[in-house]
Design brief:
Radius of gyration: 34 Å
Structural class: alpha+beta
Number of helices: 5
Strand content: 25-35%
Number of domains: 2
Order of helices and strands: HHHEEEEEEHHEEEEE
Largest sheet: 11 strands, antiparallel
Shape: globular
Number of strands: 11
Strand order of the largest sheet: 6-5-4-3-2-1-11-10-9-8-7
Length: about 220
């Protein structure tokens, strides 16, 4: 038996049936055009529904960065600076209102009588201070807080601390007691946060003055 000739005859019989099956599909179906371009009823991947990525597309799509949530914090802050070198000990009590997040925020500083002392604003790579002397730009919040409060305070981390947790972008360690931790040389006591109180302390060393922060949150 001549096998090639048998296969050729079988193909001649089956080919019209295959074409008829293709023709039974809707003429406007894009899959039909794809199959006919191949000359037969080839299999094709069904297109994804609008707005849904195929597995191949999903593997290539970059992850979307999620925006940080906006928060509002208001209260009073007590800052005590220990004596250091030729600088005497001093204290400062003020009211504050914070709005924003750790990347982009605004911090209003007020006297306890409600008069505005200064406004602090920051965004990635920039911070600025507005007070009775005008508007001053700084490269970072440490330099700005030095000018505004007389000591470089961790204002960005303080936003996290007032929510009862360390800044997740910096190393930290749990304290000996629950709801306490250390970060960036500061000891944070969040045990009284349920009653809207936070304590933070940085011990004095030969290279830096000691600082004690007490925060009373209104909300």
């Amino acid at each position: 038996m001549n096998l090639p000739r048998v296969f050729a005859r079988a193909l001649c019989v089956l080919w019209p049936l295959m074409l008829q099956a293709c023709a039974s599909v809707s003429e406007g179906d894009p899959i039909v055009a794809q199959m006919r371009s191949g000359g037969a009823c080839a299999t094709a991947e069904t297109p994804s529904a609008p707005g849904v990525l195929s597995p191949a597309q999903a593997g290539q799509a970059p992850a979307q960065a999620q925006a940080l949530p906006r928060i509002d914090l208001q209260g009073q802050m007590s800052v005590k600076l220990s004596a250091f070198a030729d600088q005497p000990a001093k204290g400062l009590s003020l009211g504050f209102f914070f709005s924003g997040n750790t990347d982009t925020g605004q911090l209003d500083l007020m006297t306890l009588m409600g008069s505005q002392m200064a406004q602090v604003n920051w965004q990635p790579g920039e911070a600025w201070l507005i007070n009775d002397k005008g508007r001053s730009r700084y490269d970072n919040l440490d330099d700005l807080s030095q000018a505004a409060l007389g000591e470089p305070l961790p204002l960005r981390q303080l936003v996290h601390w007032m929510q009862g947790h360390p800044d997740p972008e910096l190393p930290s360690a749990p304290g000996a007691e629950a709801d306490t931790f250390t970060q960036q040389g500061w000891w944070i006591d969040a045990r009284e946060l349920p009653t809207k109180k936070l304590n933070a302390r940085r011990e004095a060393t030969p290279l830096q003055r000691g600082v004690q922060l007490k925060i009373y949150l209104d909300r």
